[in-house]
Amino acid sequence: MLYPHGRAGLCGERPLPWLGPEFRTDDDSGLDDAVAYGIYGGYNLDQLLSLEASLTRSTHDAEHLDDVEIDNTALLFGPRLNARMSRGVNLYGGAGLGMYFLDLEGDSETETGLYIGAGVEFPIQSNVNLGLDLKYHAMFDSDDTIDSDLVTLMVRVGFNL
Asked: Of 39, 13, 34, 1, nearest to 135 (Cα)?
């Protein structure tokens, strides 16, 4: 039996300190200065299992290259296991496939990879929730132009459909 309950929303991501060698930081904190934006969607198959997808875009400073940026568009899709807590709070974990469209000053490449993550959703109103996701992205580098894995923190506002 399918539960016709979907989620859609807007999201923002912030890459965290554990970045691969191609992403440079702007100061001694080790934190990349990129902020991503995008859209997120999900569909509950039942109370335990759902599917999620997101499309985000970000720009990062390139390591060892002054005034050069790496544009990253990430498309993610995978299953998610949910654990409903009290007061409508939802804890979850999931893993899935990612496609990463990278552009370094006209040198474009597409990387595939996997992500694994966990998060929590809090209800704000009856059909609106606030989500917080932490994800590790492992890219299967096809060549040495851009070599990186990412850890991201996503904050999103979702609407239950």
From this structure: 13
**Model pTM?**
0.77
Give the tens place of pLDDT for each residue, 14-56. Answer: 544 444 444 444 444 555 557 778 888 888 899 899 999 999 8
- Alpha-carbon span 123 to 157, nearest angstrom: 10
Cα–Cα distance measured from residue 77 to residue 58, given in angstroms and rounded to the nearest whole number: 18
- 80-115 burial by CB neighbour count: b if 16+ within 10 A, else e? bebeeeeeeebebebebebebebebeeeeeebebeb
Please give the domain boundaries of the chain with CATH numbers for all domains. 5-160 (2.40.160.20)
CA gyration radius, the chain: 17
Q: CA-CA distance, 79 to 51, in Å (whole number)?
A: 4
- Phi, psi angles (nearest 5°) of residue 118: -145, 160
